[in-house]
UniProtKB/TrEMBL annotation:
Name of the protein described by the UniProt record: BLUF domain-containing protein
Segments crossing the lipid bilayer: none
Domain BLUF per the UniProt entry, residue ranges: 3-94
Signal peptide start-end: none
InterPro entries reported in the protein's UniProt record: Acylphosphatase-like_dom_sf (IPR036046), BLUF_domain (IPR007024)
Length: 140
């Protein structure tokens, strides 16, 4: 199977509670490791931006679960493509909340310093996530 990367944006639904982010991350880290899924999740201003990498079958299966998760609404596919290598291979699911670092990146890759993944192209969202990954490497 070919490696595949999927990027999507979504909005937290009315069913989403602030503690749900921890539940999402705990389950993702546990289950993704078993399925060789890697990626990054950004969450701020009630918006999610996520990159998922794995085999095409695993990415499709996980995305189907996300589409049926009542904590998300307005799920929008930003990018889906075969890739030659993983870019988030060190993380079963990295997480980036809103920080002072993200404001300048939001402005660099979208029309505003306020995080809104719906106002980014798939390519811009991917590049922003790579910048966040690099910044996290420099912090750790």
């Amino acid at each position: 199977m070919f490696l595949t990367r999927l990027l999507y944006a979504s909005t937290a639904s009315e069913q989403f509670k602030p503690l749900d982010i921890e539940d999402i991350l705990t389950k993702a880290r546990k289950n993704n490791g078993k399925l060789d899924i890697t990626g990054m999740l950004c969450f701020s201003n009630n918006y999610f931006l996520q990159s998922i990498e794995s085999s095409r079958a695993n990415v499709n299966e996980l995305y189907h679960k996300i589409l049926n998760d009542k904590r998300h609404s307005n799920i929008t596919l930003l990018d889906y493509k075969e890739i030659s290598e993983r870019e988030f291979g060190n993380w079963s699911m990295s997480y980036v909340p809103d920080t002072s670092l993200t404001a300048s990146l939001n402005l660099r890759f979208s029309e505003s310093s306020i995080f809104n993944p719906y106002k980014m192209s798939g390519e811009s969202a991917h590049k922003m996530m790579l910048e966040l990954r690099n910044a996290l490497h420099n912090v750790t």
